[in-house]
Each structure stands twice: as structure tokens, then as C-alpha cells.
What we know:
Blueprint: E1 2-3, E2 7-11, H1 17-24, H2 27-30, H3 41-58, E3 62-67, E4 73-80, E5 93-98, H4 107-125, H5 132-140
Antiparallel strand pairs: 1-2, 2-3, 3-4, 4-5
Helix pairs in contact: 1-3
Amino acid sequence: MIETERLLLRRLTEDDLDDFAEIFAKEPVMKYSTYRRGLSPAESAEVLGRIMSHWDEQGFGLWAVVKKSDGVLIGYEGLATPFFLPEVMPAVEIGYRLDPDSWGKGYATEAGRASWHTGSRRLTARGSSPSTRSKTCARVA
Length: 141
């Protein structure tokens, strides 16, 4: 678990499915994904399963982003392998999707910084090194 000033980042679990599905049913959340639309509950369950499997297989992944003030799940953010973009592999990206009600409040930046710092240490400990481009992006953030 990672704690920031306003957020808790923790691994997603099956218990998150209802809140996760509610967020991911919203078209703006998925507009720029391969789906290009809100997800059905079954599609949300599939995505959640892939996120949890990524952690088990890779040792890092996307965190549940939870507001400390009220304990509400607002989305996910973290490091992930973009398997959907084989032309850039091998690679690791910072990915995120947040509930539109949480946009414009700095949550993506706050969670992104925390997940980058934690994730890059984990990758370095595993023998992977963040690229120069990734380090530059992190300094800008």
C-alpha cells in the first residue's frame, strides 16, 4: 500500500468490482481506450481480473486509487506492461483511469508520482532500469 497526502493506493481485489464497474461504465472514462465506450459489468470484471493477474505475473501493476477523506474508490493508476501495444514492447507505462467526478483535482498527478517512485524502485530491484525518457517524464511530473 502507498499513502499520499490525500490518497491510498492499494491492490485491487474482487471486492472492488461493483465500484470499479460503476466507474468504468462511464463513457468518458473509456473514451480513449480500445473499447471507446463505457464497459458492461462483465467487461469490467474481465479488466479487473487482468489487472489482478498482472500483479501476480509481473510483481507490479495498477493500484486502486482511494480517497482518504471518504474511502471512495475513484479509479486506478500505476505501472503496467502495455501488451495492447506490441510495437512498443518491451515497455512499462504509467496508466490511469479515474472517475470523471475526480478529474481536475490533481489526483492523477499525486497518484502518478507515488506509483512511479514506488514502481521504479521495484523494477530497479528486479534488474530492470527505467529508461532515460521515463526518468525525464518523472522529473517533469
